[in-house]
Design goal:
This is Transmembrane protein. Keywords: Membrane, Transmembrane, Transmembrane helix. The chain crosses the membrane at residues 50-69, 75-91, 123-141, 148-165. It comes from blood disease bacterium R229. The chain has 273 residues and is an all-alpha fold. The chain has one domain (9-270). 69% of the residues lie in helices and 0% in strands. It contains 13 helices and no strands. α4 packs parallel to α12 (245-260). It is globular and about 50 Å long.
């Protein structure tokens, strides 16, 4: 829902840019995109429909992702995920934490898929539909905040590798395809020309690396721990088979909660101070 904060100048500027039809990446260059109102929660008559529809879209698929992650398991994983997200929503950087959490939820689902495919044709098709739906928000998140594109692409890459290892080539194609279709659809729905989409991401390459470098120099004491890096590498790259259900649940919850409440990690991925 709409709300007002103290730093309203750039927030109003982003809404006004959409209202005036400015092309992001050409007429206005910033780390946020045409759906920035979902992040800022700032009301503007010209962007209110984008904020409400986009937030509802994210909320529905967010809930779908939580249900899919916990489906066929005990109630503890779903309760733990909901608790972590509820606690994250109360943080000062709650928008960053919630947006950053969705790719992690998709990672938990993709890397939890069994190696042996179900013999049922219905289950085979349902899995393809589920993966396609879960990757749709990956086309919206970079249009909310451009720095999220790195995380979305990384999760998509690791997911495709996972799908290939379990011989699900249809999922390996469906995931990036649904992401690309959603990106184009949401971009056009915001009134932006299709020709301006490459320029939007190109402009991010000139802003985000410099912001990260400056803040890294100012915050050398706030570094990502080696333990967190090992967890990310182990889960997203190696993706070993779980030794037991309890081990898998604890590992997943620790990864999600550590990432949500780690300010250095979220800052590095979101490009925030």
């Amino acid at each position: 829902m709409p709300q007002a904060g103290l730093d309203h100048s750039w927030v109003l500027g982003m809404n006004q840019a959409v209202a005036q039809g400015l092309v992001f990446g050409r007429d206005i260059i910033f780390t946020f995109g045409p759906y920035a109102s979902i992040y800022t929660k700032s009301f503007h008559p010209a962007t209110d429909h984008l904020m409400v529809v986009g937030a509802l879209f994210l909320g529905l698929i967010y809930g779908t992702g939580l249900v899919l992650v916990a489906r066929g398991r005990e109630a503890i994983p779903l309760a733990g995920l909901c608790l972590a997200l509820a606690l994250a929503a109360g943080l000062p950087q709650s928008q960053d934490s919630l947006l950053l959490a969705y790719p992690l939820i998709v990672s938990l689902y993709c890397f939890g898929l069994p190696r042996q495919a179900s013999p049922s044709q219905g289950a085979w098709s349902l899995l393809a539909i589920s993966v396609s739906v879960l990757f749709l928000p990956f086309g919206l998140l970079p249009l909310i905040k451009g720095s999220l594109v790195a995380l979305c692409l990384a999760v998509t890459l690791f997911a495709v590798i996972r799908f290939v290892t379990i011989s699900r080539w249809d999922l390996a194609i469906a995931a990036p395809l649904s992401q690309a279709l959603a990106l184009i659809t949401f971009w056009l729905a915001s009134g932006q020309p299709l020709s301006g989409l490459p320029g939007y991401f190109q402009s991010m390459t000139r802003i985000i690396p410099k912001r990260w470098l400056i803040r890294a120099r100012l915050r050398r004491s706030s570094s990502i721990s080696s333990q967190q890096l090992r967890w990310w590498f182990r889960y997203c790259v190696i993706a070993p088979e779980a030794r037991s259900k309890t081990y898998s649940h604890c590992h997943s919850l620790c990864l999600l909660i550590s990432s949500l409440f780690s300010r250095p990690l979220s800052c590095a991925m979101m490009g925030t101070p």
